[in-house]
Structures are given as C-alpha cells and as structure tokens.
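Before the break, one more example. Copy the sequence into your notebook; we will annotate it together after we see the structure.
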Amino acid sequence: MAVFAFYSFEIKHLARQVELDFPNLEEKQKHEEQEELFHDVFAGDSVDLWTAFRRADGSYNKRSMERYKNEILAHRDGVIAMTIEANKHKTTIEDKHKVTHPHNPFCFVIIDYRKGQNLIALQKNGAFTKPEKLAEIILSTFNRLFEAHDLRMMMKPLVREGLKFWDAVTEIRTRHHDKVRRISLDFSNAQDTADYSSNQAIALISAISKKLDANGMMVVEAKDDMEVDLDIVYEDMLMLADICQKQPEYELNVHFFSYGVYRFGSDVTAQFGVDERVIDNFQHNIEEPNLFGENYTLDRWLENMKDLFDANEYVKSTSVEPTTKQSRRR
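Here is what the structure looks like once it is written out:
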C-alpha cells in the first residue's frame, strides 16, 4: 500500500501574475492551455529534475546542483504517474570494513491535471520521509520547465484544520460504503526520547524494536472477508488517536477494503493510500475494474480524493516555496 500526501496546484502567467482560469478566458480555452503545457513538458520518459541552492536575488547556484533520476511510468487522460529516486548512501560491511554504496530508494508521484482536479500526490516512504522536501524539489523543477511557457506553478498542501480521527473514519465508511480491513499503529519513527508513560505496551514493543534495529508496529486485521468493527472498540480507538496527537512520531493507519488507507497522526497534511497494483495497472493500461471494486482505478481514486477534500473543507495551507539559501563567497 502506497500512502500519499496531497497538494493542490494552480498555474499562473509570470507577466500578469494571474491564474490560468482568469475570467476573460472561456472554460474550454483554460483547460486546453493547461493540457498543452503538461503534454509539452512531460512528453518524454523523464524530466530534467534537479534542485540547487538559490541566492538572495532568486538566481540558482548551479555549482551546488543535485539531480534526481526519475521515470514517467504513464501519461494518459490528464493523469501522470512517475517515480523519483532519492540520492542516499548505505553503509555495509565487506571484508571486515565499512563500505559506503549509493542507495536510491524511489517513491511514486501522481499528477492529476484534469479539469477541476489539479492535484499532486507525493508518496511518503523511505525515499522521502518528509513530503514537503519532495514538494520543494518538484516545485523548483516544474517552475524551471514552465518558465519557457511564461508560466509558474503554485503548490499548497491540503490540510484539515481540527480534524478528528473518528469523524474522518466515519466519513469514509459512510460516503463510500466501505469497511475497515485492518488497523495498524506504526511507531518505527519514534525517538528514544519519546514519552511512553501513557501506554506501557507501546513502550515495551517500541523498546524491543529499537534494540533489534527493526520496524515497530501493532496490527489488528479482520479474519477472511469480515470487517473490523470499530464501534466495539470506539473508546480504545479514541485513546490511540489521542496518543498519536501527543506523539507525532506515531502513525495510526486505518486500512479499508476498497478505499485504501487513512493515516492519522503523522502530520496535518492530507494523507491517503492506494494499493500499488492500481498504479501498476495504470502504468500498463490494464482494465481490471472488478479487482477492488468499480471505483478503484487510479483515476477514480483521485476523483474520490477530490470529492472528499471538497466535502470536508480541506483547506489550502501555506504555499510551498523552494528553499532560498545565500551562496558562499569564494
């Protein structure tokens, strides 16, 4: 299951600093202009994805440039699925000596520029644990590529202020007639300094996982095709949600049969999951509508996400801005 943080975007003209959907353009013309932009920029198998430190005047210091390998898996009907690799290193032991190797874990990025959608979904995994970092890389690259068209992109994370755990789960269950398949509490990212006093069981399992240098997780899964009856454990779930709010390292995940994953507790950005098989089907243009249900294709999942954000008043938070750093003098 791939979990994504969602961002909205809009395109503006550099000279006029107004949105593409300004009033004097017909609706059809607005959409065609955005379609032409994405078709032109994402016409190949990859894009020139790189970031660089920026001077105070906004110019790039190319001597500190860092490139990221990427691949456009599929670009069809206003939806782009691509992967981006992180530039990391991993240390192993060879012949009793530590040896450092390049390590390039990847994550999925989904761009939906269809009419009325304008969503970017960034996978949160070991490649980029902080979606906002990946958002900066994408925004910096896209704006550099869009500049030739005299256009500029604005990205904003979608957040739900004051969102309560039970309200979000209930909304998904009722709105999409879905059932809960599994509940998991992931505390792999918990620090040694975390306050475990509120829950001794979590403290014990977390301590064991730390000693073993392993990932720590508590999972409750339904038998066969039955559902996890959250109503029976209502008070317990509220307690777990409260712990996750107090301990931001904890991530409470609710896995649904059709909808995907709702993640609570990692940060305020909207985070939802989809089975990677759905992305694979989109990549290879495979029609498999009955695998997860009628609405569980990638494009329909993105439409469901948009409906959920609109219905629950997810707001566009502060715009993402590429990090500006003064270059060092020679």
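The radius of gyration is 22 Å. The chain is about 25% helix and 30% strand. Try to locate both features in your own notes.
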